[in-house]
Amino acid sequence: MPARDERTGKSAAAARIANQSSWVDQQIRIAMERGDFDDLAGYGKPIEDLGGEHDPDWWIKKLVERENIAILPPALALRKEDAELDGRLDRINVESEVRREVEDFNASVRKAIYTPPTGPSGPPVITRQRDVDDEVVAWRERRTARIEAQRAAREQAAAAEPPKRSWWRRR
């Protein structure tokens, strides 16, 4: 049995609950006096999306917007991956990894082509598989061109600098 206060006849828990709202109000008042609520983001601006229709999926839409999440149908996701594949390959330094990356891409294309759509179907898959050997040759050429451009830039920077003189010959 909960302890009762002799003066009021109420339990201690009931007394705490009754005084809780005044305690919270006091904490808010003290924080306002300290200036904890000054210069908050959104101060003086209307609350976003207030007064519109209730959308039960509002939180997922805000998450997608905030995290910049893109959910694409398989055909469009493959097109995007195809457009970004050369850039991904250029960040790789080993030929075997380039081959593996292209083979993984080709497996994704085959899967998208031969997997029947579930739910509402999106656009058709028009992305083609890439020839692994051709991609390796193109990767080598781009890599060689990048290395040569870096070498030329270093040589040009070195030629632009005057030669350093030894410390004992300075005057």
Account of the 3D structure:
This protein has a domain of about 80 residues. Helix content is about 60%, strand content about 0%. It has 5 helices and no strands. The longest helix has 29 residues. This is DUF1992 domain-containing protein. It holds the Pfam family DJC28_CD.
Residue fraction in strands: under 5%
Oligomer kind: single chain
- Average pLDDT works out at 84
Class from helix and strand fractions: mainly alpha
Rg, alpha carbons? 33 Å
Helix content: 55-70%
Shape: flat
Number of strands: 0
Please provide the ordered H/E string of secondary-structure elements.
HHHHH
Largest sheet: none
Separation of the first and last Cα atoms: 97 Å
**Secondary structure tally, helices:** 5
Low-pLDDT segments: none
Protein name: DUF1992 domain-containing protein
Organism: Nocardioides glacieisoli
InterPro entries: DnaJ_homolog_subfam-C_membr-28
Pfam families: DJC28_CD
